[in-house]
Every structure is written in C-alpha cells, then in structure tokens.
UniProtKB/TrEMBL annotation:
InterPro entries: ARM-type_fold, Vps35, Vps35_C. It is found in: Cytoplasm; Endosome membrane; Golgi apparatus, trans-Golgi network membrane; Prevacuolar compartment membrane. It comes from the Eukaryota. This is Vacuolar protein sorting-associated protein 35. Keywords: Cytoplasm, Endosome, Golgi apparatus, Membrane, Protein transport, Transport. Belongs to the VPS35 family. PANTHER family: VACUOLAR PROTEIN SORTING-ASSOCIATED PROTEIN 35 (PTHR11099:SF0), VACUOLAR SORTING PROTEIN 35 (PTHR11099). Plays a role in vesicular protein sorting. GO terms for biological process: intracellular protein transport; retrograde transport, endosome to Golgi. GO terms for cellular component: cytosol; endosome membrane; Golgi apparatus; late endosome; retromer, cargo-selective complex.
Length: 791
C-alpha cells in the first residue's frame, strides 16, 4: 500500500503544480497581450517557481518542465517580435529579467532573453553564452540544475558560432561554441553524479533508477558536439575527446562512466574513433572496476568492424592505425585489470575482437589463433564450462571462423581451435560439433587428407564417442538418430582421388568410429563401408594404376579392412545390417574377380543367418537378399556355386510359413538360369525348384482349406508367371502342357473359393491370361512358345 500511496501523492502534487502553472501562464499571456511587461514577467516568475519543487520524481518533473518549456517558447517569440519592432531594447530586457525574486525563474528567463540577445547580434554570441553558462552555476540542486542546463542547451544549439552558421565571425569562433558545450556538459555531469550521494543509503537503488531516467539530458551535449561542423578530426583529437575523457575518468562514477563511454562511441563518427583509438582505449583501464567495460569495448569493436565492411577503401587506414594491435592490447589489459570479470564477459570481448579481426585481417590466421590462444589461457585451470552465457559465447567464438571462411580446413589449421573446444561440457560440445558438420554440408567442403580428418574427428568427438553413458541414455532417441545421421553424412564428404590417401582416410575414420560404442556403430559403419567400396571401384576402373603410378593399396587389403569393420557390428547387435553389408562386399568382390573373398563374405552372411536371425520376418527378408545377390554373381566355379545355391534353397524350404517357403523356393529357380551370355542355364534344376515350390503351394492350400480359409490361390498365379518367364527365356523343360495344367488348377481353386473370392487374385489371374493371349497374337519367336498353351 505504501508505494501506491506515494504514487497517488506524487500524482496529486503534479496535478496541483500543473494547475498553478497553467493559472499563472494564463495571466502571463493576458499581460503580454496587453503589452504589460512588468506583470508578464511577474506571472512568468510565479509560473516558473513551480519548477522549484522537490516532491516529484525526475519522470514527473519532466512533465512539468515540458509544460513550462512550451510557455517559455511563447515568451521568447514575444520578446523577439517586440525587440524587432523597437518596443524594448534587448539589453534592457536582459537586465530586467535578472530582477526576478527567485533564482530559478530568474535563470530560466535569463536564458530565454539570452537566446533573443544572441539572435539580435547586439553582443558577441560567445559573451552571452559564457555569461549564461556561468550564471547557471547558481542552481546546485541536481534535478533542477540538470533541467535548467538542458533548457540552456536546447535554446542555444541553433545559435552557436559554428562554421557556416550566422553567428560565426569576428570575435566568435567555433572554439567558443565547443568551450560552451563542454563547460555545460561538465557541469551537468557533476550534477548528475551528485544525485547518487544525496539522500539515505537505503534509497541508493532508487536514486540509481532516477539517474538512469535523466542520463539523456547529459548525453545530449555530446550529440550537440558531434553535430558541429567545426569539430573536425584534428579538433576532436586535440580538444574535444581529451576534455570529455578527462571528465569521464575524473567523475569516478560507475553509471556515468559506462553511459558516457557508450555515448562517445555512438555519437561520434567511426573515422574519428579509428584515428583516436589509442587515446580512447587508454581511458578504459582508468574506469572504475565495477564498470561493465566489456559491453562498451565490444560496442567499439563492432562499430569499427561494420565501418570496415561498409567500404573497402578504409581498410588501409585500419592497417596504418595498427587497430588490431591496439584493440588486442586493450582487451588484455581490461581482462587483467578486472579480476572479478565473469568468464562470459571475457569471452564476449574475445568474440568482438575476433569478429573485428576476421573483417579487417581475414588473411592473418596468426591473429585469429592468437585470440583463440588468449581465450584458452583465460579458461585454463577451470573445469568444463557450465555457465550458459559463457558456453553461448564460446559457440559464437568458434562459429565465427567457420562463417567467414566457409571452409572447416581453415579452422583445422588453427592450433588453438580444438583447445577451446576442450573446455566445453559434453552437451555444448555436441552442439558445436553439429554446427561444424552443418557448415561442411552447407558449403560442400571436401576434406581430402588423413591428418585433417583425424583433427576433424577429434573436434567432433562429442558426437563420435561415448563420453558420458548416463547422458547418452537420457538423450532423446530422435535427437540421437539425427546426430548420428549427420556424422554418417559427414563420412561421405571425406574423399580424394589419391587412392593411398583415401585408404588412410578410411582407416582414420574407422579408428574413431570403432571407439564410438555399440549404439553408434549401426549409423557410422555403413557409410564407411560404402566409402571403401567406392575406393574399390576406383581402383578397379584404373586396374590398380592411378595417374600412371602403381599404388600400394590393394583390393585384398581393402576387403580385409571391410571384413574387420563389419565384424564390429556383432557388438551392437545388428545382424540384419551386417548381413546386408556382407552381401554388398561379396558382390564387390565378385566384380573384382576375387572368388575366395566373395565366397568368404557370403559364408559370413550364411553364418549370420543361421546363428543370429530367429525372427521369421527377418529370415524371409534375409533369404531373398541372399538369393538376389547370389543370382547376380558369376565369379564362382561349379563346386562353390553348387554349395552356395544348395544352402540358399535349403534355407528357403525351412522357412516357418508355407507361403514364405514357396516364394523363396521359386525365387531360387533364378539361381539356375542366368540370362547373361556365359550365365548358368540349368533347365532341369529350374524345373525342380518350380515343382518343389508347387508342392509347397499345394500343401499351403490344403492347410488353409483345413482351417476353412482361402487366399493361397495367389501362390499358384505367381507360379504360373514364373513358368511363363522361363518359357520366354527358352528353358526346354518348361512345356505348354505343364502351364495348361497349372491354369486349370488355378481355375479349379478359384471356383472352389467363389463364395469368398479374392478380387485381387481374380484380377491378377485375368491379367496373366491376357498377357498369354497378347503373346499368342504378337508373332515372332516368343509367340511360338505361347501357341501351344490352351487358355
């Protein structure tokens, strides 16, 4: 209730003051209209006396001041018109208003007449300005004095003897204008600082808030200085900046120093900052230890960075000014001086300095590494960073070179880059690793040496290795998959045309990913296997001779590495994935003409099938993969091929479901009839497989009928299509009479199941019959095989 009551009292006080101000303003205007100067000044003094109140906060006082300011502008216009007419002498007015009873109204009126006095040019502007700025020292109450001097600054800003203005010349020079503004600024800053030390200690925070509300009144003086045409670089360097910095340093106030340094950087041109960098930076170590220098210094570096980017013509100026050396030294001195600066603040400075360096000196990697080294030194002796602000700044620091160069290879050439990453906790390390991989993907960066790959995988070890089992268990499954898929995509970006170097790259990646734990292998092993297979094809196309030089990397050596790599999946376990990879390697060995190697990979696939695959659905998929792979192979001799095909057909007949058995067995028929010129064409064994599949289909149909079901007629239709396939291919053992008998069998089964007919089976059968009729009418060699079939 107390704050509400105080706010209500303040509102009432403001309303009362505003009412009295308006009352006196009314009578003042009536006196001005009747040209009664004596009464007008009396009512103006009473009106301005309302600004003597100490009951209002700066925010409410400002409302009252603005109302009085509006009324004073009207008084100023009256004085201007009357002096032009010759009704009153401006000199007399200047003397007359000084007879006001109270000092505050007197000084407001004096400033108002002083504005008219300067404009009349009856006296040098510098004399009037000097008189006014000295007279205003009569008000030492901080709030009243600040607003009075703000009024003086406001009414005089268009009447300063600046270059090109109407008030320059003769005894009036731009130096007078600068001196006036600097003097007013100095006095206002003293008043502003004094506010902090007036009143009870318990209200210190409240006074700090009130001072923050008034800071723009002080800062406007610096803005006025920056707008003066006469303040060129030399004037700024020799006079303006040293005077301002002297006041900033000597005031020894945290809020004032932070705000004014920020003001200097904001209002004056970037070119001036560059040319006076040493002077400006020399003030930073002299500021109070509690001043947040990092924000101000970061702002300065950001301003200079943007200035450099705006036009390349200024870059030589940066080199001439030795900007990097000065800023780097300043950052070091500030961090060393402020021993209590949080680690996030120090890293913020390094980020700004790095951004500046990347824009000004992108070719100086030694500068960039120097900054990273300074960061490492600041972090040394500390445990893993867990401060969220600090870790965000570290990510910004490490991301900056990636964004600038768009090439991870540049970052890999920086010795201190991985040392900075070592200070990240596991979660943040993963985030940074993901950023690195995204950068590589986005810019399509190709990493082509084993040394760089080794350095890269050390950088992203947070994604590649199990560093904290508990953390990995807590990680969301989808996030984990996304992380590992990004690593898999990265592996495909590691490539070179040098076969020996590529083998080293593959071996290096293998070394890292095998340390990644069983959960990761299922994601990272497949891309590594396919990279090795790609290298095999490269060697095969060049017959082991690349660029006219014989290479030491052999196909057998690569297959040996592949075998050892896939074996690692046994720890996952991921038998289905391992089987697929073994089959891929077997097919690659077949293309290379290495029968023993291909046989070994197929043997490993069969062992996995026997020992690891108990689920019936997995078995079905696996046996079809094996059959499809084996069918495409032509490297085997008779004995080895018979052994493998016998295994495949044997496992096909042992599947759990009859339907799966049937489909796998008739798929095996393709193992005995290969369409290639030198391929196997054993019609007897084809027919044997088809008959065996037909017997299994019959058994499935009978079992289905026993249960009162239907639907296995589709198997017979599929068998019919296989018969037609081998008939077209010219297998003499496939006769038209056998096909005719199968057609009749299908019709019988369909009629038997007509109560619950399967529309898809009927459509399949009708389509097959149309296919037969089409070939009968087509003519040619194939048509002769179909003519004997009775549909």
């Amino acid at each position: 209730m107390v704050p509400d009551a105080a706010a209500a009292d303040e509102e009432k006080c403001l309303a009362d003051g505003m009412g009295r101000l308006q009352h006196n303003a009314f009578y003042m205007h009536r006196a001005l209209d009747s040209n009664n100067l004596k009464d007008a000044l009396r009512y103006a003094g009473q009106m301005l006396s309302e600004l003597r109140t100490s009951s209002l906060t700066p925010h409410k006082y400002y409302e009252l001041y603005m109302r009085a300011f509006d009324e004073l502008r009207k008084v100023e216009m009256f004085f201007m018109e009357e002096t032009k007419r010759g009704t009153y002498s401006v000199t007399d007015l200047y003397e007359l208003v000084q007879h006001a009873a109270n000092i505050l109204p007197r000084l407001y009126l004096l400033c108002t007449v002083g504005s008219v006095y300067i404009k009349s040019k009856e006296a040098p502007a510098k004399d009037v300005l000097k008189d006014l700025v000295e007279m205003c020292r009569g008000i030492q109450h901080p709030v009243r004095g600040l607003f009075l001097r703000s009024y003086l600054s406001q009414i005089s800003r268009d009447k300063l003897p600046d270059i090109g203005s109407g008030f320059e010349g003769g005894a009036n020079t731009v130096n007078d204008a600068i001196e006036f503004v600097l003097q007013n600024f100095t006095e206002m800053n003293k008043l502003w600082v004094r506010m902090q030390y007036q009143g009870p200690i318990g209200e210190k925070a409240k006074r700090g808030k009130e001072r923050s509300e008034l800071r723009d009144l002080v800062g406007k003086n610096l803005h006025v200085l920056s707008q003066l045409e006469g303040v060129d670089l030399d004037m700024y360097k020799e006079t303006v900046l040293p005077r301002i910095l002297e006041q900033v340093v000597n005031c020894k106030d945290e809020l004032a120093q932070h705000y004014l340094m920020d003001c200097i950087i904001q209002v004056f041109p970037d070119e001036y900052h560059l040319q006076t960098l040493e002077t400006l930076l020399s003030a930073f170590p002299q500021l109070q230890p509690t001043v947040d220098i990092k924000m101000v210094l970061s702002l300065l570096m950001d301003r200079l960075s943007n200035y450099a980017v705006s036009t390349t013509e200024v870059l030589p100026e940066f080199l001439q000014a030795e900007a990097f050396a000065k800023l780097n030294s300043a950052v070091g001195e500030v961090i060393e001086a402020q021993v209590d600066m949080p680690i996030s603040g120090a890293i913020t400075l390094y980020v700004s300095l790095l951004t500046f360096t990347l824009r000004i000196h992108p070719d100086r990697l030694d500068y960039i590494d120097q900054i990273l080294g300074a960061c490492v030194q600041r972090l040394s002796g500390k445990t893993k960073l867990e401060d969220s602000k600090a870790t965000k700044q570290i990510i910004a620091l490490l991301s900056a070179p990636l964004e600038k160069y768009k090439d991870i290879s540049t970052a890999l050439n920086l010795p201190n880059y991985p040392r900075v990453m070592d200070h990240l906790d596991n979660a943040t390390n993963k985030v940074m690793s993901a950023i690195i991989i995204q950068n590589i993907m986005k810019n399509n960066t190709c990493i082509s040496t084993a040394d760089k790959v080794d350095t890269l995988f050390e950088l992203i070890k947070g994604l590649v290795k199990d560093t904290d089992e508990a953390q990995d268990d807590e990680l969301d499954e989808e996030d984990f998959k996304e992380e590992q898929n990004s690593v898999a995509r990265l592996i495909h970006m590691l490539r070179t045309d040098d076969a020996e170097e590529m083998f080293k790259i593959i071996s290096t990646v293998r070394k890292h990913i095998l340390l990644g734990g069983p959960k990761r292998l299922a994601f990272t092993v497949p891309p590594l296997v396919f990279s090795a297979l790609k290298l095999l094809r490269h060697l095969q196309n060049h017959d082991g001779d690349v660029n006219g030089q014989e290479v030491s990397v052999t196909q057998k050596k690569i297959f040996q590495l592949l075998h050892q790599t896939i074996e690692a999946l046994s720890s996952v376990p991921s038998s289905e994935l391992a089987l697929r990879l073994y089959l891929q390697c077997a097919e690659a060995a077949n293309d290379c003409g290495l029968e023993p190697v291909s046989y070994e990979f197929l043997t490993q696939a069969f062992i996995l099938y026997e020992e690891e695959m108990a689920d019936s659905k997995v078995q079905v998929t696996a046996i079809h993969l094996i059959i499809g792979t084996l069918q495409r192979m032509n490297v085997f001799g008779i004995e080895n091929r018979d052994t493998l095909t016998h295994k495949a057909t044997g496992y096909s007949a042992k599947l759990l479901k009859k339907t799966d058995q049937c489909r796998a067995v008739y798929a095996c028929s393709h193992l005995f009839w290969v369409n290639e010129q030198d391929g196997v064409k054993d019609g007897e064994r084809v027919l044997l497989c088809l008959k065996r599949a037909l017997r299994i289909a019959n058994a499935a149909q009978q079992m289905n009928a026993t249960r009162g079901g239907n639907g296995h007629v589709t198997l017979f239709i599929e068998m019919l299509n296989k018969y037609l396939y081998f008939l077209e291919k010219g297998s003499p053992q496939i006769t038209s009479s056998a096909i005719h008998d199968l057609i009749e069998l299908i019709r019988t089964e369909i009629q038997r199941d007509n109560t619950t007919s399967d529309s898809s089976a009927n459509a399949f059968f009708s389509s097959t019959l149309r296919y037969i009729e089409f070939h009968k009418q087509k003519g040619g060699t194939v048509s002769e095989n179909y003519e004997q079939i009775k549909v």
